[in-house]
Backbone:
């Protein structure tokens, strides 16, 4: 926790209210993340998740407070912080290659065409779109469009990748593959990522830290849940992990009931020192995986062996 | 046996055309009674009175005359007798000049209005008042200030084609999707580059639609404007031939005005298709 690569310091967002006053979507929000961490914000609609992300992206300004990234207070948008939009936001008059190349030329203005093309191609290949370079967004499926969005964001080699419910418009199967893709990319490149989601399983699969926000207006960051699942977790046996249900139930309980009542029940909530929740017994994970438990995916998990 | 829709439509079109020509031919065959008159008096009278011929020309007369015009489109026998090609050329040149001037003014100004809510609000009352004014109402003012009938006609074309382009450009620019602007913002794209790489392509279909409406209006107005200013042009030709009581030439001119107007529209339609992107 010493390394604060991203540090959101006491930001608030207020809108002018109907009767002269102002309504705060959220107040005094503190949040920090280390380099290479994957953070997910979960909360109900209207709690200001998207606003937090937009402030982090520089697309929106906080009414109060600052955001520090890599030791510098942010001012407006930056090529260091790439955004993957919910609606993919591809430019429909450009091809796949054109969309990625647009980002590349924006970052490296004096590169010649061949260099831009080669660089863009690398990232198109990286997200598995080789062969579709010259298609226009209208010719792509929803999942492919979002892959282009990911390639575009990655192509500028950002310090942070910001994702605003990037997969919520996709069908479950495509969403799954793209989550795998994002996880692979983040693990391979050590990318710092900040994501907003509604999907509890998505957060459990992807995030190192899950930020739980209470309902707006006047939303607060209630808890930071550390993901107890190991780094090399896989989608298929995620739900077999002994801590999976404890973690999932904790988050769902929060969303179902505690997100509404949190402010009333926790009068002494300190926005600067948000409780860090660790599910289960973390010391279990320190123990090295012995040879005989290796065939079971998770350490400490007993499963009856049903040899077929 | 079924033919393609296109083929069947073409058959109906041809049938309608033949029917129209046929009815026209029968209606103008000339069955009026011939009055008896002295040969001296008959010389003063037209064929209508002496031979009972209909004053309205039939399709054969028009066809023959049209063929004559098409054989010699560019002759010039003095101010009141020029080939149709020359007359149309004058009109197209005037429309072209006024239209290009309108493009030069309307598109940058429309961009400004679309991008700046302040300018939009500030200019709105002027646009609202100026837009509904008939372009021909400007004619006396133009003639008085410019003191040149031909340039006045160009000014009238300018003023009539500027509004649809201006309003469509402003609307198109203001309606560019926020997410595309945000893409440019997160990529730190500067204002000028953003205008050319995001806003212009995004608004291009709307702008081109405005330009297409404008060229249609300009071609409508040029005929009326040339009737007023006189001298040259297809509008003047129509009025001159009316004064000559040559209904045949008037009909030919009407036909050509229609065809040129269609061609101008088709050219702009093609440009619109070129910049339209599927979403």
Residues:
């Amino acid at each position: 926790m010493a390394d604060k690569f991203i540090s959101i310091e006491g930001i608030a967002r207020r809108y002018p209210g109907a009767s002269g006053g102002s309504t705060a979507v959220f107040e005094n929000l503190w949040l920090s993340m280390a380099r290479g961490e994957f953070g997910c914000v979960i909360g109900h609609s209207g709690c200001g998740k998207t606003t937090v992300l937009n402030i982090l992206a520089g697309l929106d300004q906080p009414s109060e407070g600052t955001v520090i990234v890599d030791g510098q207070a942010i001012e407006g948008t930056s090529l260091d912080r790439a955004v993957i939009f919910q609606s993919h936001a591809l430019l429909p008059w450009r091809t796949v290659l054109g969309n990625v190349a647009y980002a590349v030329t924006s970052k490296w203005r004096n590169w010649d065409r061949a260099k831009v093309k080669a660089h863009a191609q690398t990232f198109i290949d990286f997200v598995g779109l080789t062969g579709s370079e010259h298609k226009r967004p209208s010719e792509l499926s929803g999942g492919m469009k979002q892959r282009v969005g990911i390639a575009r964001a990655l192509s500028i080699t950002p310090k942070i990748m910001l994702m605003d419910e990037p997969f919520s418009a996709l069908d479950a199967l495509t969403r799954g593959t793209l989550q795998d893709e994002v996880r692979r990319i983040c693990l391979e490149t050590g990318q710092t990522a900040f994501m907003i989601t509604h999907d509890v399983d998505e957060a459990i699969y992807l995030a190192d830290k899950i930020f739980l926000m209470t309902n707006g207006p006047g939303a607060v960051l209630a808890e930071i849940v550390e993901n107890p699942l190991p780094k090399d977790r896989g989608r298929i046996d995620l739900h077999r992990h002994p801590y999976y249900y404890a973690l999932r139930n904790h988050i769902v309980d929060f969303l179902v009931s505690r997100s509404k009542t949190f402010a009333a029940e926790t009068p002494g909530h300190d926005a600067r020192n948000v409780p860090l929740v660790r599910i289960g017994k973390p010391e279990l994970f320190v123990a090295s995986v012995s040879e005989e438990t290796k065939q079971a995916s998770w350490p400490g998990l007993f499963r009856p062996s049903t040899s077929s | 046996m079924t033919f393609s829709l296109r083929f069947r439509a073409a058959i109906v079109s041809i049938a309608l055309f033949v029917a129209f020509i046929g009815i026209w031919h029968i209606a103008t065959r000339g069955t009026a009674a011939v009055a008896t008159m002295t040969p001296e008096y008959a010389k003063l009278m037209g064929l209508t009175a002496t031979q009972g011929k209909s004053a309205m020309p039939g399709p054969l007369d028009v066809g023959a005359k049209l063929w004559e015009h098409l054989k010699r489109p560019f002759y010039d026998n003095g101010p009141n007798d020029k080939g149709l090609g020359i007359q149309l050329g004058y009109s197209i040149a005037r429309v072209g000049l006024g239209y290009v001037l309108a493009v030069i003014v309307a598109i940058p100004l429309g961009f400004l209005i679309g991008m700046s809510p302040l300018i939009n609000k500030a200019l709105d009352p002027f646009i609202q008042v100026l837009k509904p004014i008939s372009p021909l109402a400007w004619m006396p003012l133009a003639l008085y200030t410019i003191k040149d009938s031909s340039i006045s006609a160009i000014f009238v074309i300018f003023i009539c084609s500027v509004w649809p382009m201006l309003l469509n450009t402003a609307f198109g620019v203001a309606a560019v999707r926020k997410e595309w602007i945000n893409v440019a913002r997160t990529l730190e794209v500067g204002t000028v580059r953003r205008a050319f790489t995001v806003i212009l392509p995004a608004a291009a279909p709307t702008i081109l639609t405005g330009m297409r409406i404008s060229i249609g209006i300009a071609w409508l107005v040029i005929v009326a404007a040339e009737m007023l200013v006189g001298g040259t042009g297809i509008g003047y030709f129509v009025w001159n031939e009316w004064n000559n009581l040559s209904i045949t030439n008037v009909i030919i001119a009407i036909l050509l005005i229609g065809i040129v107007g269609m061609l101008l529209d088709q050219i702009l339609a093609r440009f619109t298709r070129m910049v339209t992107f599927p979403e």
